[in-house]
Each structure stands twice: as structure tokens, then as C-alpha cells.
Design a protein that fits this description.
Elements: H1 8-16, H2 22-35, E1 44-45, H3 47-54, H4 58-70, E2 74-77, E3 81-84, E4 87-88, H5 89-113, H6 116-134, H7 138-155, H8 159-168, H9 170-179, H10 186-201, H11 205-216, H12 218-229, E5 234-235
Parallel strand pairs: 4-5
Antiparallel strand pairs: 1-3, 2-3
Length: about 240
């Protein structure tokens, strides 16, 4: 059984990924399709069909499936096939707990170490977020949200910590995409981002911690609503 999906947006992303290995490019494309729910929880994934649609051999798709299984997005069942994993509420909660612990520490450090140029870059990202929010482009907004948090980590010289977070939050990312703007209005997120930047600009580690903690708690408010609205997507 195969699942058809549109690759137009992912093909655009592919131009940015040409410097990566073929396996890395396939991984990023399929991961984006899963997070953006083009491949929905429980759906089977066809190695041959994805290879055909991406114009690659089956080997890099096989490698991507293995890596996606390691991040918790797919499940490889011997003799049965590869399936998109259901969203685990328990894993989302655990990932949020770990992310908060790391990002709150990053925010405190950024309040001390971020330069004026770093603050200006964050404000520019918020302006971009406002622009895509007006157009209702949730996928673009999520990418800019990632860039915003990564930029804070960079301003605190904590990019290694950000790479650890990227490996932890795969389940969270699907919930975040699903929540936009259904459970969490984009303007709410933008306002929280503005509060974080204001705390960094005021050089207040305590305020940076408070605003970041509040921002990362948003998923706990939206998760029960989303699980009730989309029970077919969630496990436990």
C-alpha cells in the first residue's frame, strides 16, 4: 500500500539541502512530510514509492527510514513494513520537560551574552513571523520558530545544546504543527517571542527564564485539546 503526498514544498526545501548527503536529503524531506502531517500517524510508508517521488534509489530511503525510527517518528515492523508512529502523549510530555530544562538554561545565558546584533536578528525573525502569520503559512511559521530558538542558542554559544534538542523533540514538532493555529493562535506565539527578546534585551536572566518557561508551557495547554480533537493521531 502506498501513500501519495505533494512534494512541492519539500522540493523547494531540497534546493537548500543539496550540500547534504543523499540520505540526509531524503531524511529531511520525509521528516518534514511526517511533521507537517502529509504522512499521518499510522500511515504505511512505501520505500519504493518515496524513492520514485524523490527521484532517488531505494538505498537512501532505507537509510532515512532507519534514522527516522531512531528519532521515534516511524516504526519498522519486520515482514509488515514501515509505518508512521502514533503521537505519544507520554513522549511529548517527556520531551517538553527536557527541552524546558535545556532552553531555560540557554535563555539565562543568552540574557548575559547576547550582543546587540543578536537581539536585532531575533527581532528581524519576529518580523518575518508576523509576515507569514498574516498569510496563514503554518509550515513557514514553524521553520521560523525553529530559527528563532536556534538563534537564541547561538547567541549564548550553545549550538551543541541545540543539536541535542533537535534529537529530542521529534514528537513535539508534530504537535506544534498540529496546534497552529488550531489550538495556539500564531499571535500568541509571536507575543511570547517578543517577551523573550525583551527579557534578553533588558539583560535579565530571571525574566528570560520566566518568559521562556511560559512559552514552552504552551504545548501542555494545547495537547489535551488536540488529542480530543484528533484521537486517531494519538497513542496512550
Amino acid at each position: 500500500m502506498t501513500v501519495d503526498f505533494s512534494l512541492s514544498a519539500l522540493e523547494q526545501d531540497g534546493r537548500r539541502l543539496r550540500q547534504q548527503t543523499m540520505g540526509g536529503r531524503v531524511f529531511e524531506s520525509v521528516r518534514a512530510a511526517i511533521i507537517q502531517l502529509q504522512f499521518r500517524p499510522g500511515n504505511p510508508l512505501s520505500e519504493a514509492e518515496i524513492a520514485r517521488q524523490l527521484g532517488v534509489s531505494r538505498q537512501p530511503v532505507r537509510e532515512a527510514f532507519i534514522k527516522l525510527a531512531e528519532t521515534g517518528l516511524v516504526e519498522i515492523r519486520p515482514q509488515r513494513g514501515t509505518f508512521v508512529r502514533m503521537i505519544s502523549m507520554r513522549e511529548v510530555g517527556n520531551a517538553r520537560f527536557l527541552r524546558e530544562a535545556i532552553e531555560v538554561a540557554i535563555a539565562r545565558k543568552a540574557a548575559v551574552e547576547a550582543t546587540d546584533a543578536d537581539i536585532a536578528a531575533l527581532e528581524a525573525l519576529i518580523a518575518e513571523q508576523r509576515a507569514v502569520a498574516v498569510n496563514g503559512d503554518n509550515a513557514a511559521f514553524l521553520r521560523l520558530d525553529e530559527k528563532f530558538h536556534q538563534a537564541i542558542a547561538r547567541s549564548a554559544d550553545c549550538e551543541d545544546a541545540w543539536r541535542v534538542l533537535e534529537g529530542l523533540k521529534a514528537q513535539m514538532d508534530r504537535v506544534r504543527y498540529l496546534s497552529l493555529p488550531e489550538a495556539t493562535p500564531l499571535e500568541t506565539i509571536i507575543e511570547q517571542h517578543r517577551n523573550i527578546v525583551a527579557a534578553l534585551a533588558s539583560r535579565s536572566p530571571q525574566e528570560a527564564e520566566t518568559t521562556m518557561r511560559q512559552h514552552l508551557s504552551e504545548i501542555l495547554l494545547s495537547l489535551p485539546k488536540l488529542a480530543a480533537r484528533h484521537p486517531a493521531y494519538f497513542a496512550d
